[in-house]
Amino acid sequence: MYSRIPRIIGITLLVLILLSTAWVWLTLNWSYSEGERAGYVQKLSKKGWLCKTWEGEIAMVTMPGAIPEKFLFTVPDNGIAEKINAMAGQRVVLQYQQHKFIPSSCFGETEYFISDARVVTDSAPTLPAQSSSQGQLQAPR
Question: What is the mean pLDDT of residues 106-124?
């Protein structure tokens, strides 16, 4: 009877380790949502006591004079962090993946992981042609 107890404890620990490993893998490799956010990078810094991660925030402005909304994010790749730093002072678009229920802040302090970044190119918007009352197209005035 006593010889089975260490075996049961060992099997239980092994199962717990395997379940924990599967949970971490699942939360880091399966994204809950994906999208893009545009704004001006306010902060990007590598921080943490034991696990150093790139953490940042962008200010998203909907219209001139409006109070900007902050979007907090984590950058898992050093190359992408360097790319974002090089775009400082410009309006950028960040592509992100949202990973929920990550078990530790060692992987990042937020659930939004940046996968790519690009500068917003401001081109003059084109206005659609307006139709006249006779059905012919006219250029906008």
Answer: 87
